[in-house]
């Protein structure tokens, strides 16, 4: 068998296939003509659904037997550490292996124009917006037909990736979400250093990923290295409301265009208004009117994400008309302020919370989208950042924007050193001291049992987690149907 580019197809196995980027890579490799298998400890939506739709089986749990017959190549996910039974088998019998980021560059980015969206927050949504802008522009100019990989399922495409062929000497665009997390157990540098951007967006720079970065300075160093990869002919679109971003872009060799609310911004946002779930604003470029933009999403942060995408697209030659049309028809990303259910007047929202700043912006956006409604925040401390106590005070500040808060116990707390571990009962105490009702429950089942009797029509429940959260996304609407809608 042969791949779409005429080379011999391979059997490629992905360890940790249910990670967002890994699942996307699996689909891209399959589309190329390779035989793809994979394994994971646990599969959950949306990536498990995407893999199932593509017909890629996920073996659970990890086992050496999952590597029979012997694959030609193994891709080791960055969540996989020494001691994993499949990784140990790969090392013992010397099956060739590589990282996701390296294979992604070599097989898909090389030969294309690399456009990287990076930042502590907003990169998934911004990459999705940029991809949709390119897609709309390609309807009248095929040069803009995008290939992309996004860290979530973009609703406009119904997928997290798309790969188009390279024809002739063209360098078609490849849009990719640039993750600052480390690459693999054998490569501790950020994944985005493998993507060699021709142009890039930098949204925010904050301390995050406390499991691999010792402090903010280490995080800034990673982003400075990314900026240093952009060639002189390239462009960098960078948020101007952050001193950390300013520091990271100061020594760039490429063109730098700042965006934000500052009157001196090259890409200046003004007249920003929110009406329910719709945002609108005027965008100026270099002191001249560029466009009036409308976005069917709430939140200042989403307007900033859209502005960054518009700025990069415009700089790459996409006309304002296509940008306006694309943003007005943008349909968001799964697990980003996604409405999962509406039962008896109660709205259940799913949001991929990973950091106190992201939680704050989510709750602010819900206040704008649902004025006068009671907002519940239901949080599972699951990310490597939220499971640590370094952000405990910031977490209280963010959650205090809700009317009531329900916390779950820290996910796999035993894997976090006691001295570093978040103590959710202290977060509850901090919220109660500020007059915000807050409670702690052991797991999703206990939360559903306690929460459902408290809910009433008009309430908005924001479920905040970057994982499966014990199936709460399905369990809560089902229980609400019984309790509030009288469904038996």
TrEMBL record:
<feature type="domain" description="Mur ligase N-terminal catalytic">
    <location>
        <begin position="11"/>
        <end position="105"/>
    </location>
</feature>
<dbReference type="InterPro" id="IPR036565">
    <property type="entry name" value="Mur-like_cat_sf"/>
</dbReference>
<dbReference type="GO" id="GO:0016881">
    <property type="term" value="F:acid-amino acid ligase activity"/>
</dbReference>
<dbReference type="InterPro" id="IPR005757">
    <property type="entry name" value="Mpl"/>
</dbReference>
<protein>
    <submittedName>
        <fullName>UDP-N-acetylmuramate: L-alanyl-gamma-D-glutamyl-meso-diaminopimelate ligase</fullName>
        <ecNumber>6.3.2.-</ecNumber>
    </submittedName>
</protein>
<keyword id="KW-0547">Nucleotide-binding</keyword>
<dbReference type="GO" id="GO:0005524">
    <property type="term" value="F:ATP binding"/>
</dbReference>
<dbReference type="InterPro" id="IPR004101">
    <property type="entry name" value="Mur_ligase_C"/>
</dbReference>
<feature type="domain" description="Mur ligase C-terminal">
    <location>
        <begin position="335"/>
        <end position="467"/>
    </location>
</feature>
<dbReference type="GO" id="GO:0009252">
    <property type="term" value="P:peptidoglycan biosynthetic process"/>
</dbReference>
<feature type="domain" description="Mur ligase central">
    <location>
        <begin position="117"/>
        <end position="313"/>
    </location>
</feature>
<dbReference type="InterPro" id="IPR050061">
    <property type="entry name" value="MurCDEF_pg_biosynth"/>
</dbReference>
<dbReference type="InterPro" id="IPR000713">
    <property type="entry name" value="Mur_ligase_N"/>
</dbReference>
<keyword id="KW-0961">Cell wall biogenesis/degradation</keyword>
<dbReference type="GO" id="GO:0051301">
    <property type="term" value="P:cell division"/>
</dbReference>
<keyword id="KW-0131">Cell cycle</keyword>
<keyword id="KW-0436">Ligase</keyword>
<keyword id="KW-0132">Cell division</keyword>
<keyword id="KW-0573">Peptidoglycan synthesis</keyword>
<dbReference type="Pfam" id="PF02875">
    <property type="entry name" value="Mur_ligase_C"/>
</dbReference>
<dbReference type="GO" id="GO:0008360">
    <property type="term" value="P:regulation of cell shape"/>
</dbReference>
<dbReference type="GO" id="GO:0071555">
    <property type="term" value="P:cell wall organization"/>
</dbReference>
<keyword id="KW-0067">ATP-binding</keyword>
<dbReference type="Pfam" id="PF01225">
    <property type="entry name" value="Mur_ligase"/>
</dbReference>
<keyword id="KW-0133">Cell shape</keyword>
<dbReference type="InterPro" id="IPR013221">
    <property type="entry name" value="Mur_ligase_cen"/>
</dbReference>
<dbReference type="Pfam" id="PF08245">
    <property type="entry name" value="Mur_ligase_M"/>
</dbReference>
<dbReference type="InterPro" id="IPR036615">
    <property type="entry name" value="Mur_ligase_C_dom_sf"/>
</dbReference>
């Amino acid at each position: 068998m042969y791949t779409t580019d005429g080379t011999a197809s391979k059997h490629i196995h992905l360890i940790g296939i249910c990670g967002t980027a890994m699942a996307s890579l699996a689909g891209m490799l399959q589309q190329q003509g390779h035989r793809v298998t994979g394994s994971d400890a646990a599969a959950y939506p949306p990536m498990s659904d995407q893999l199932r739709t593509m017909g890629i089986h996920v073996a659970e749990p990890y086992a050496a037997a999952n590597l029979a017959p012997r694959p030609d190549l193994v891709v080791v996910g960055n969540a996989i550490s020494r001691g994993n039974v499949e990784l140990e088998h790969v090392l013992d019998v010397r099956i060739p292996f590589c990282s996701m980021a390296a294979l992604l560059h070599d097989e898909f980015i090389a030969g294309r124009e690399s456009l990287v969206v990076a930042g502590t927050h907003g990169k998934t949504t911004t990459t999705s917006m940029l991809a949709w802008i390119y897609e709309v522009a390609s309807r009248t100019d095929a040069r803009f037909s995008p290939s992309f990989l996004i860290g979530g399922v973009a609703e406009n495409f119904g997928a997290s990736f798309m790969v188009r062929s390279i024809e002739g000497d063209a360098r078609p665009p490849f849009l990719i979400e640039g993750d600052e997390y480390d690459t693999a157990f054998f490569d501790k540098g950020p994944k985005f250093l493998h993507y060699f951007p021709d142009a890039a967006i930098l949204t925010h720079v904050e301390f995050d990923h406390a499991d691999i970065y010792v402090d903010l300075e280490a995080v800034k160093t990673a982003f400075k290295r990314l900026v240093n990869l952009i060639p002189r002919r390239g462009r960098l679109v960078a948020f101007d409301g952050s001193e950390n971003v300013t520091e990271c872009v100061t020594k760039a060799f490429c063109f730098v265009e700042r965006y934000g609310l500052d009157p001196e911004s090259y890409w200046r946002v003004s007249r920003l208004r929110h009406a329910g779930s719709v945002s609108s604003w005027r965008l100026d470029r270099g002191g001249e009117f560029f466009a009036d933009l409308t976005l069917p999403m709430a939140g200042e942060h989403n307007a900033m994400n859209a502005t960054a995408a518009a700025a990069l697209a415009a700089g790459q030659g996409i006309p304002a008309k296509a940008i306006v049309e694309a943003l007005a028809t943008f349909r968001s990303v799964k697990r980003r302020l996604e409405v999962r259910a509406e039962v008896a007047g109660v709205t259940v929202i799913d949001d991929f919370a990973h950091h106190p700043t992201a939680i704050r912006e989510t709750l602010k956006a819900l206040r704008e989208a649902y004025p006068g409604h009671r907002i519940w925040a239901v949080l599972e401390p699951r990310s490597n950042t939220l499971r640590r106590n370094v952000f405990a005070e910031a977490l209280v500040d963010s959650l205090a924007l809700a009317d009531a808060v329900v916390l779950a116990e820290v996910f796999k707390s035993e894997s976090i050193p006691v001295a570093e571990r978040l103590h959710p009962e202290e977060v509850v105490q901090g919220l109660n001291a500020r007059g915000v009702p807050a409670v702690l429950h052991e797991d999703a089942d206990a939360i559903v049992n306690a929460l459902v009797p408290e809910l009433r029509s008009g309430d908005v429940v924001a479920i905040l987690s970057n994982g499966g959260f014990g199936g709460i996304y399905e369990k809560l609407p089902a229980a609400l149907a019984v309790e509030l809608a009288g469904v038996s």
